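Let us practice reading a record.
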Amino acid sequence: MLSTAAFAPESEVVWKALSRPTEPTVMTLVPLSDAGLVACVKGRAGGAGLGRPADRITLAEIYRCAVGDKPLWAPSPEAEPACQVTMHAGAYFAALTAEVEEAVLASLGDRTLADSVRELRRIGAERRARQG
């Protein structure tokens, strides 16, 4: 969605990014629609669009819709406790993983879809300028 949005005029962003009738797109639209991030209209004249302005949709919301409650990283299963390290490694890495996940979600929560589109456009303009 962002790759299409980065270089399309505002009026075309949502249509190009969300109107592809592929199964992965449909499966992605369901949680986005359930969360109110995308509004879908069925039928011949239907389509999909943002459920609210892009500057009011955070990347954390999009991320949560995409992955659900799955952790960013899953700690390895508990090893046979042979020493103090293996006895407590699972708990240590579970806590560390939760801390990292919280930091990632906080960072994504500080960025909106509109911010991301602007940044992608800026990066694209810089790249084109360097290429001549």
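A brief commentary: The longest strand covers residues 38-41.
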